[in-house]
Amino acid sequence: MFLRRLFNTGRKKLIVTGAGKDRIGIVKDITGIIFDEDGNISDSRMTKLENNFALMVLVDIPEKNYASFQDKIKRSRELFAIHLDATDLHPTPAKTIEIEDYKVFIELVGDDQPGIVYALTQHLAGQGVNIDKIDTFSYSAPMGGCTLFKVKSKVTVNKIIDFEKFKHSLKSLESSLVAEINVYREGEASDSSSSDS
């Protein structure tokens, strides 16, 4: 399996991050900055955190519009009451890369308690596993009235790591974290009986 990465000349890639008080129209205002500068959103994460709104967006902008785009980003607090930053992304040279790794999805559900995310990410780092994405949220249990904590993560695992051993190492955390952990490879069905929240 091969992945082709093409570097598009004449445009610059940036990661835009930001946070501010949540309000109606905030996404419109942020994406409007990008649209006005002939920019394109290729990937994004936007979420409401209590009464705040946070985002991380991968965009590409024509080089000729780079200065004006950065100026609007710097003035975002004044214009839209949200603080934004834009960081240049290092370009990837055009070449074909053979992918030797595989993707794994991890779902964890347990009692809401401090240290769950740290314990999980510490374990993954110790295995030499790279985290591509991690989402966390709390919700009330259907029965019992307690608060549950859920982690959904996508990670990249080197092919030299046996999947079954990797899965077993994660399952061994269940007792210490008082949680249920479901692990499955990309393309395989999850055996979790819980529905996505």
UniProtKB/TrEMBL annotation:
- Supply the SUPFAM superfamilies for this chain: ACT-like
Database matches in Gene3D superfamilies: 3.30.70.260
| InterPro entries, alphabetized | ACT-like_dom_sf (IPR045865), GcvR (IPR016867), UPF0237/GcvR_regulator (IPR050990)
**Pfam families given for it?**
ACT_6
Q: Name one GO biological process term.
A: regulation of DNA-templated transcription
Q: Which PANTHER family match?
A: UPF0237 PROTEIN MJ1558
Protein's name according to its UniProt entry: ACT domain-containing protein
What organism is the protein native to?
A: Stentor coeruleus
